[in-house]
Amino acid sequence: MNTFHKNILWTERSCLLIFYLQTTVNCQFIYALCIVSLNRLVAIVYQSKTFFRTKKWTIICISIQWICGILIPLPQFASSLTQCFKSGLEMNYQIYVLFINGILPAIFLAITNSIIFKFVRRSTRRVLPMKNEHQTPITTLNHRDARLLKHMLFMFAAFFCGWIPIYIIRVIYWDGKGISNVAYHGVLMLPIVGLVIDIVELFLYNHELRTYFIDKVCNYRR
């Protein structure tokens, strides 16, 4: 639509709305990773608190994610409509989008994951003097959480490398000058590549889903 039917896609009603929806979708994805990281943090640090393992806590987390993903991008609607038709959002709003989609989640994930790793390392050191039969459950827990954290960080890196270059280019060339149309459309391929990588990573990480598909394929061949 953007390449062949710009006049239909970009109207006074849709211009800012399209940028808002794009930012909202990206926020929902990256904030979901933040919520998962927060859940792992409270599950590890506050193991004795049953509230953090209830459906109520899960609903609260999902609600916070959706509310933040919907409300935080709203300031984009204050951007100039004239500038929106020319090249997108104004520079200060491009910086804002870069902050809420890239910098803020990166800081949040760095803090939560650092706390998790420090807590796990401290717990492991306390377990070392104990007998071997008491060490195994803690070690298994650490390996599982470490694998989950690596999985989340990889997905964040794929998202970051896919979308953040576009936001940086929009900040640097916010007036639409200084970058060719071919180069810009080339950069637009990065989110697609990042999305494919995340889908493959999710498939490889989810052992149950992978086993299900393998069984289906084997049964179909029979």
Automatic annotation (TrEMBL):
It is a multi-pass membrane protein. The chain crosses the membrane at residues 58-75, 95-120, 153-173, 185-205. The keyword Membrane applies. Its main location: membrane. The keyword Transmembrane applies. It is found in: Cell membrane. It holds the Pfam family 7tm_1. GO terms for cellular component: plasma membrane. Keywords: Cell membrane, G-protein coupled receptor, Membrane, Receptor, Transducer, Transmembrane, Transmembrane helix. InterPro entries: GPCR_Rhodpsn, GPCR_Rhodpsn_7TM. One of its GO terms (molecular function) is G protein-coupled peptide receptor activity. It comes from the Eukaryota. One of its GO terms (biological process) is neuropeptide signaling pathway. Residues 1-205 form the G-protein coupled receptors family 1 profile domain. This is G-protein coupled receptors family 1 profile domain-containing protein. It comes from Adineta steineri. The lineage of its organism: Eukaryota, Metazoa, Spiralia, Gnathifera, Rotifera.
